[in-house]
Amino acid sequence: MKPNLKACGQAMVTAMVNAALAVALMLLVEFAISGSFQVPAPYLWAGLLIGLVIFGAQFWRQRHLYRSNEADEKTSTTSRQSLHSDA
After folding, report:
1. SS3 50
2. 47 three-class SS
């Protein structure tokens, strides 16, 4: 369960940063076009959708990385133990 929590935290941070940057970029372009800082609701929904997509992808990726790292550590400790048992 610990790898899932680590993956969730890492994915949440990545998703929030990327979603905030996307909304900021959309607002900057909106200001450049219209000259006002009005925040249209579709931009907020788009930012939420971007955040959810990035969270899902990053969670899957991070969970896979943590699990493969754990498997590598188990394999390396097993091989080390077999090397030391010969002595």
Report:
1. helix
2. helix
